[in-house]
Structure formats: C-alpha cells, structure tokens
Recover the amino acids of this structure.
C-alpha cells in the first residue's frame, strides 16, 4: 500500500475525550481496567462520596458497619501494548474509512488518553511477520511516533498470521506489561489459534477490538456478475453475487460467532466496532461496562 492513510487524529482524539467528559468519566477510568499483574493488597480505606460505587467491598463494609473499599499498591506505571493487524484484510472497506484507517484513529484516541495520563505505550504492527515495532515509551513524542507509523501505507499488506504474532509476543513480552490491546477484523483468526490465544490471555490482561465493515457480513445487492481477485495469489474469478450471497453471509456469521466464543473461552473482553458508525460512544460504553462488571481491581490514583 502506497502513500498515507486517510486519518484525522486530532478530530477523533478531541471527540473521544469530549465524550468522556460528557459521560462524566475520569481519565483514570482505563487504569481501573488495565490492572496489570503487579498489584499488592494494602488494606482498606473509607469509600468517599465521589468514588465509584462499584469499588465498594460489600462484605468488608458489613463487617465494619461502614463503606470501605480495597486499596492496592501499584508497583509501576502502566505499560500498554497495542497489537495491530496491518494485513491486506484490513486494507479494505465500503465506507469513508478503510478498516485500517478506522483502526488507526481508535489507536490514536486510546494511546493519547494513556500517554496524557502519565503512562507508557508500545506497539507491534503485524501481518505474517512484524511489520513495525514501536518500543515502549511515554510523552507526546511517543504518541506522534506511534500514530505516524500507523498512517504510513508502506506498513500495510501481506497475510495476517495470529499463531506467529501470539507466539512471538509470548516470547518477547515480559511480565512488566500491564495489558495488551489486540486490534483486527479477526477474519484470519482460526479455531486452531485458540490454544495459543488462551495461553497468551492467561499471562497478560488482554482486550480485543474487532473492526467490522458492513461488507464483512453481507454482500451488496449487485445484479450483474463481477470479477474478484485473491489478494494473496492474484487469481481472478467471475462470480454472481446473487447466487452466493446467502452462503457468504452464513459463513460470515458462523465465523463471527466462533471468534466471539474464542474470546469468551479465553476470558478476553472485547468490543465490536463497525466502520459505518463512529467508534467514540460504543468504545466508551464498553470501557464503562468493563469497570461496572466489578471484576477489575482499582489501583491507587
């Protein structure tokens, strides 16, 4: 892929953070999700009126006859890794933004939130190998470095290989990593990848962001025959969309359900975002739901 992606980072970052304020969400919300693996219990403290009610330890509160919540000591600042699919499956779409462009703007919104909250990010762009590695770092220079790599067309293309990236990261990442965010359409995630995915999520706090284009789930109502080309082999074939539409949509739904089941069985929280809608409100709602499930430890601010 040549040139640069059609992205507007400034606009999406501003929309995302404005929406967080409108929802009265504090910037520390993501810290309540990405608890990491390095927290130690440090006792209880009284629940304050402006604290999140989901942080209350109700059993301890009944014993002490006052509202209390657990307090943890965080051993380090958060280190968040973005793992981004840049395969040719992401360089497609039927909307204003290709899936890779939509993905890049999501990464910009989340990484800006993390970095301006004082934490660090790193990243891996992958297809059948590591297309680009962004070393861990903080500050706005890191944000600009990260997002600049994401908009370069030269970093995109090739066949996505989930076994390769999960195996590579398992050998490369150490236990100082607080969380891993995997962003892809997951069209090339197969059942054979499940074992490695589960092993990976058992070691690292993992979140999945599924990017969908309407064409991933349904074929358009085209009444004439069309020529399609296999991006890997270059082989072309003449098809009649009306004849294969039902089979295509059945297969797409089955695959989508398999991916969701693999995430559920791997204890990975995930959100599905579609390129025909803004990601801002659905992504914020997802983050809020993760906190409200009360399965996450709330580190000290």
């Amino acid at each position: 892929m040549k040139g640069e992606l059609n992205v507007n980072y400034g606009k999406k970052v501003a929309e995302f953070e404005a929406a967080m304020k409108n929802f009265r969400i504090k910037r520390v919300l993501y810290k309540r999700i990405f608890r990491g693996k390095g927290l130690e219990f440090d006792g209880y403290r009284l629940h304050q009126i402006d604290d999140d009610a989901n942080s209350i330890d109700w059993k301890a509160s009944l014993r002490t006859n006052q509202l209390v919540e657990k307090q943890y000591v965080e051993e380090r600042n958060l280190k968040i890794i973005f793992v981004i699919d840049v395969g040719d499956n992401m360089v497609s779409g039927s909307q204003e933004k290709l899936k890779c462009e939509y993905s890049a703007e999501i990464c910009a919104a989340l990484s800006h939130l993390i970095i301006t909250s004082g934490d660090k990010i790193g990243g891996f762009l992958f297809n059948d190998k590591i297309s680009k590695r962004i070393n861990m770092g903080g500050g706005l220079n890191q944000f600009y470095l990260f997002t600049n790599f994401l908009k370069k067309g030269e970093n995109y293309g090739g066949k996505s290989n989930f076994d390769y990236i999960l195996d590579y990261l398992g050998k490369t990442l150490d236990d100082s990593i607080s969380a891993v965010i995997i962003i892809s359409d997951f069209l090339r995630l197969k059942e054979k990848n499940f074992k490695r995915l589960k092993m990976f999520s058992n070691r690292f706090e993992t979140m999945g962001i599924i990017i969908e284009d309407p064409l991933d789930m349904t074929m358009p109502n085209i009444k004439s025959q069309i020529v399609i080309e296999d991006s890997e082999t270059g082989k072309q074939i003449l098809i009649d969309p009306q004849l294969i539409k039902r089979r295509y949509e059945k297969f797409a739904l089955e695959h989508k359900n398999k991916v969701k089941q693999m995430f559920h069985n791997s204890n990975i929280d995930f959100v599905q975002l579609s390129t025909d809608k803004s990601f801002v409100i659905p992504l914020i709602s997802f983050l809020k739901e993760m906190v409200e499930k009360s399965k996450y430890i709330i580190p000290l601010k």
Summary: The mean pLDDT is 86. The radius of gyration is 21 Å. The CA atoms of residues 205 and 298 lie 14 Å apart. Strands lie at 39-46, 68-74, 79-85, 120-126, 130-137, 179-184, 206-212, 226-229, 236-239, 269-274.
